[in-house]
Design brief:
The complex is a heterodimer of chains A (717) and B (157).
Chain A (H helix, E strand, L loop, with lengths): L8 H5 L15 E7 L5 E7 L10 E3 L24 E2 L5 E7 L2 H10 L1 E6 L6 H6 L4 E11 L9 E10 L11 E7 L4 E6 L4 H12 L5 E6 L13 H16 L3 E4 L2 H7 L6 E10 L5 E13 L5 H10 L9 E10 L13 H19 L3 H8 L17 H13 L1 H14 L3 E12 L6 H5 L2 E6 L5 E4 L9 H13 L6 E3 L18 H20 L4 H7 L6 E6 L8 E2 L4 E2 L5 E13 L4 E12 L6 H20 L27 E6 L13 H4 L1 H13 L10 H12 L1
Parallel strand pairs in A: 1-12, 10-11, 14-15, 18-19, 24-25
Antiparallel strand pairs in A: 1-5, 2-4, 2-6, 3-5, 7-15, 8-13, 9-10, 9-12, 13-14, 16-23, 17-18, 17-20, 21-22, 23-24
Helix pairs in contact in A: 4-5, 7-8, 8-9, 8-18, 13-14, 16-18
Chain B lengths: L1 E7 L2 E7 L5 H8 L18 E4 L2 E4 L12 E3 L8 H13 L8 H14 L5 H7 L11 H17 L1
Parallel strand pairs in B: 1-5
Antiparallel strand pairs in B: 1-2, 3-4, 3-5
The chains are: A alpha+beta (717), B alpha+beta (157).
Chain lengths: 717, 157
């Protein structure tokens, strides 16, 4: 079956699609920011350079803020701008605007900030190993079924896993355009963002009563986001709005790549301490105790939500009778970490999947056998007591083992490695990802969507969810049109604008198709039955006077989905997507270098609406995960800061292995979450393949030659 | 200031600009050809790739004086250029477009490859695109698209 072509592709292929930097409006000023360049301390003095006419510049600082100097987030603790106390590198001190970009950049580069420094925590392990750095609320998840082990035959094993920061590295840097209409007292923001209504809250917060109305619209093109444009745009939009209000002229800020890398949110570094108890070393895990920690950076912002998803995915795809999970945030002096595809789950799954292989290695059981022993099956309970109702993880595992020839290769490689210097390895990993907001999130959000049937026969869809490359606007239109059955070009998603789009929630959490898409489809079905048409085009043509007609629908979760936020018991996610992966690698011990040769992915994401788009999500997610596994590293202690894509090394075309993807159980009536799950499992699969190839257990990412060199030294001693 | 004469997308341009402008600035700010994107400004990401005298280059790394008498091709040439059009169609059919920010540069790197090597192997395609970063697609569908375009070009000749 051929997939429907993307609606946005033509504009993007001709260069006509406008990204934020392609917007210019009359009288527009160029804006930029000056940010803190120490990790912790105090700002003592700001020295502007001589030889510039300060009258030409608009400059804003925290003292210009008419509203609140707090970015609205799940935890309201981060200021938009700081004037004295420095809690992290990259805090905005000033917003500056000037008609000429070159003069602006020169002025900024010559401005000197004097600081008084204090001791700072910037190293991930220094942050996460020390309980004194813990801040925010500690989360607990406990689940105890009857003990399955005999106390006399216990085998207990503990391992600690670490993962590093990861930069989203969307190709289009962060950017905002603010236009202030003095007569209407209206602030209009156009920007590259995932969550227009979050940005609206932020601009209303910083502007307070100084503006009457705030309107947010996304740029036509959003050049990638991956979570990176979930919360940082709130801050940038706030500062840009403040500049436009003070200058009484439009202001556009587009970050330079280096600044974008240095100061915007990243994936949270993690430390996951796992203690498991097994009965008689037979590989059956009876009890597990997980201490899951995230380095939040200097402020909590949305980190509690990441932490929550992390603990809810911490036991992975395994059925364990006794589970005790503790989740905590730790404070460092790096910029606040934020959303990134997977949202706490990749860190949890890396630890659990690596742990499983370590146990298998230690007990000389095959990693496949160990997984089969402990795998979640229909009727089993998740740690939240939620009952698993489908056996699809087992099906994913069986299929990926078959497709990849895992069993034969596992033994073949063991033989091969006995006589060859260059090693071969094969690794397994499982993934699961809950669709939509965690726990009661969707209940609170109450997403609303709107469909307008126009007089001219067009169908316009109004949702707040953005097209950031993932193909959402094509897929959503397809879902609506599966009911209306019009030519595809007649059904379109309108660019989100908070003055006309209902709030269907943020573009996050694998929820756009799963929550918003299924809601739209429900609305389309309702429209069809209310209007009673057989052919919509015909119906509109014959009843011109009744159109345009607008319809809305609100998301109501399944009333049976009860979740207790305190005990973390209940239904945290109505549906899970499942996946299994096999990775094949070659390891060159002279270069300490891993090359990924092949990667097989079998996923159950329910119904697949657009296969081409769905495949693109998996390929892209897998490659991001491979980057996280092998090369992507934000150096901290003892290293200079990043300067760009030379020292932050993203996978390029030459690094890409053969990637095979198969979707199973696609005859499901429901399209489940897809965006994040491909990020969850490939990194541990690579790491497990390296363990199979070398027998070296490395419990940290990324697997750079430097780290392998050090580990090899340790294992020889 | 420097007086420049060069050709962009078969049109002759005569323009006086500051010496420190990059080709990227000339294209975007002076000629309003905004299909060429700035992703990093230091030649690392390839989003600003254009074809300069037959070679794919990062236009952020080319200074104004270097384009004197040059022949330049940008994504805007796709309105009339058959090779770009075949590439575009292949990108569309293979699902090689996601966010679209790397797409114009990717297309021009692919075209420059096909100009000097009409029947590239998969390895040659990957090599030709190694300077164009894409964070969305994992490059799989892009590589497929260039293969398909090469096949179609061969058939159309």
């Amino acid at each position: 079956m051929k997939s429907q072509k993307r609606k946005d592709a033509f504009a993007k292929l001709t260069g006509k699609c406008r990204f934020l930097d392609d917007y210019t409006v009359p009288d527009m000023l160029q804006g930029y920011i000056i940010y803190t360049t120490i990790d912790r301390g105090w700002i003592r003095k700001i020295n502007f350079p001589a030889g510039f006419d300060l009258q030409e510049f608009t400059i804003v600082s925290a003292s210009d803020i008419p509203g609140k100097n707090i970015v609205p987030e799940p935890v309201n603790d981060q200021p938009f701008m700081t004037s004295e106390v420095v809690d992290n590198f990259g805090q905005v001190i000033l917003g500056i605007a000037h008609p000429n970009r070159e003069i602006l950049k020169k002025f900024i580069s010559l401005t000197r900030i004097e600081y008084e420094r204090r001791n700072a925590v910037t190293d991930t392990k220094e942050c996460l190993d020390n309980e004194a750095n813990q801040f925010g609320e500690i989360m607990h998840l406990k689940h105890e079924l009857a003990p399955t082990y005999n106390l006399r035959h216990l085998w207990k094993w503990q391992q600690i896993f670490y993962t590093q920061h990861q930069e989203q590295a969307y190709l289009e840097p962060q950017g905002m355009l603010a236009e202030y209409n003095i007569e209407k007292e209206e602030m209009k923001i156009t920007g590259t963002m995932q969550c227009p209504f979050f940005v609206k809250d932020a601009v209303e917060s910083i502007m307070g009563k100084a503006v009457k109305n705030v309107v947010i619209e996304t740029s036509e093109g959003i050049g990638g986001a991956f979570g990176g444009k979930e919360d940082f745009p709130n801050l940038l939009a706030g500062v840009t709005a403040l500049l436009a209000w003070k200058a009484q002229k439009p202001v556009k800020i587009v970050l330079d790549r280096k600044d974008d890398l240095l100061i915007t949110t990243n994936r949270h570094p993690s430390r996951v301490d796992i203690i498991a108890i097994m009965h008689d070393q037979n590989g059956f895990i009876s009890k597990i105790d997980i201490d899951y920690r995230l380095d939040a950076g200097a402020f909590q912002t949305l980190s509690p939500v990441v932490l929550h998803r992390g603990i809810l995915h911490a036991t992975g795809g395994y059925n364990i009778a006794e589970v005790k999970i503790k989740g905590s945030l730790h404070r460092s002096n790096t910029p606040p970490n934020g959303a990134f595809r997977g949202f706490g789950a990749p860190q949890a799954i890396f630890a659990m999947e690596s742990f499983i292989d370590n146990v298998a290695h230690r007990l000389s059981i095959s990693p496949l056998r160990l997984r089969q022993l402990n795998l979640l099956k229909t009727g089993d309970q998740l740690p939240t007591s939620q009952i698993v109702t489908e056996n699809h993880l087992q099906d994913c595992l069986d299929r990926v083992v078959q497709l990849s020839g895992y069993k034969k290769k596992f033994t073949d490689f063991q033989e091969y490695n006995k006589t060859n210097t260059v090693k071969k390895g094969i690794g397994l990993a499982l993934g699961l990802h809950g669709g939509g907001y965690t726990g009661n999130g969707e209940k609170v959000l109450q997403s609303r969507v709107k469909i307008v049937l126009e007089k001219n026969g067009m169908v316009n869809i109004y949702v707040a969810n953005v097209e950031m490359g993932q193909g959402a606007h094509t897929t959503l239109a397809q879902m609506v049109n599966s009911i209306f059955k019009l030519p595809p070009e007649k059904v379109n998603v309108v660019i989100p604008n908070t003055s006309q789009t209902p709030n269907s929630g943020p573009t996050v959490a694998s929820r756009t198709i799963y929550v918003v898409g299924n809601l739209l489809q429900k609305l389309a079905e309702r429209i069809k039955s209310e209007l009673g048409f057989a052919d919509l085009k015909d119906h509109i043509a014959k009843n011109q006077n009744s159109f345009p007609q607008s319809f809305e629908e609100v998301f109501v979760p399944d009333p049976a989905d009860d979740f207790d936020d305190i005990t973390n018991q209940g239904v945290a996610y109505h549906d899970f997507s499942w996946a299994a992966c096999v990775v094949e690698i070659t390891y060159d011990p002279d270069l300490y270098q891993i090359r990924v040769d092949k990667c097989w992915n079998v996923l159950d994401v329910g119904k697949v609406i657009n296969e081409g788009i769905a495949l693109g999500q998996v390929y892209g997610g897998v490659v991001q995960a491979l980057g996280w596994a092998l090369t992507e590293n934000i150096y901290k202690k003892g290293y200079p800061r990043l300067s760009g894509f030379t020292d932050y090394t993203l996978p390029a075309s030459l690094d890409i292995p053969e990637i095979k993807v198969e979707f199973i159980h696609t005859n499901s009536p429901v399209a489940k979450g897809l965006g994040e799950i491909p990020m969850d499992y490939p990194a541990p699969a690579v790491r497990n393949a390296f363990l199979q190839a070398t027998g070296i257990m490395i419990n940290e990412l990324p697997l750079t030659p430097e780290r392998i060199f050090a580990a090899q030294g340790r294992s020889k001693k | 200031m420097i007086e420049l004469k060069f050709t962009v997308n078969s049109e002759e341009v005569a323009i006086t600009v500051a010496e420190n402008l990059r080709l990227l600035d000339i294209l975007r700010d002076e000629l309003h050809l905004t299909g060429t994107k700035e992703g990093c400004a230091v030649g690392e990401c390839g989003a600003c790739t254009v074809i300069l005298n037959g070679e794919a280059v990062c236009s952020c790394m080319v200074l104004a004086c270097q384009v004197q008498d040059a022949v330049i091709e940008t994504i805007e040439n796709c309105d009339t250029d058959p090779v770009l059009q075949i590439l575009q169609q292949a990108f569309l059919e293979c699902g090689a477009v996601q966010c679209g920010f790397c797409t114009p540069g990717m297309l021009l790197s692919a075209k420059a490859l096909l100009l000097r090597n009409p029947a590239p192997t998969e390895a040659e395609i990957k090599k030709a695109l190694e300077g164009n970063l894409c964070r969305c697609t994992g490059y799989i569908q892009i590589t497929e698209a260039v293969k398909q375009a090469a096949r179609e070009l061969a058939e159309s000749k």
